[in-house]
Amino acid sequence: MSGTTQAPAIDGWWATDESGSPHLVGARCPQCGTYVFPPRANNCPNPACAGDELEQVPLSRRGTLWSYTENRYAPPPPYPAPDPFEPFAVAAVALADEGLIVLGKVVEGTLAADLKVGMEMELTTMTLFVDDEGVERTVYAWRIAE
């Protein structure tokens, strides 16, 4: 059986649960409860806290659209871009439970005209590019919640 191999474009920023649903991996300060994304092991981001050990935790899969924009130009090298380049939307999604705003690409086929501040968004994954070994490099992405 031949198939395409998939691997994250960046390790450790998202994972999947037993059902195959993706979630972001963040970090939480056990002293003050502050969350951070992308995850890291130390330096609590809360200036009022001296905590220096953060624990990895799964973050919410859903949030509300806080802001968005549309990228209409291909990124410069060394960043991969499809040829021909297709515009794509970028969303800033507020995770209410964690008090975080997480920026990410929006799935193909959804552009700025389809988005509205306050709408419900959910996490998914998408292929960013195929590397020189033929591995599909995937990233987390946002889509309009069903």
TrEMBL record:
<feature type="domain" description="ChsH2 C-terminal OB-fold">
    <location>
        <begin position="57"/>
        <end position="124"/>
    </location>
</feature>
<dbReference type="InterPro" id="IPR012340">
    <property type="entry name" value="NA-bd_OB-fold"/>
</dbReference>
<dbReference type="InterPro" id="IPR052513">
    <property type="entry name" value="Thioester_dehydratase-like"/>
</dbReference>
<dbReference type="Pfam" id="PF01796">
    <property type="entry name" value="OB_ChsH2_C"/>
</dbReference>
<feature type="domain" description="ChsH2 rubredoxin-like zinc ribbon">
    <location>
        <begin position="22"/>
        <end position="55"/>
    </location>
</feature>
<dbReference type="InterPro" id="IPR022002">
    <property type="entry name" value="ChsH2_Znr"/>
</dbReference>
<dbReference type="InterPro" id="IPR002878">
    <property type="entry name" value="ChsH2_C"/>
</dbReference>
<protein>
    <recommendedName>
        <fullName>Benzoylsuccinyl-CoA thiolase</fullName>
    </recommendedName>
</protein>
<dbReference type="Pfam" id="PF12172">
    <property type="entry name" value="zf-ChsH2"/>
</dbReference>
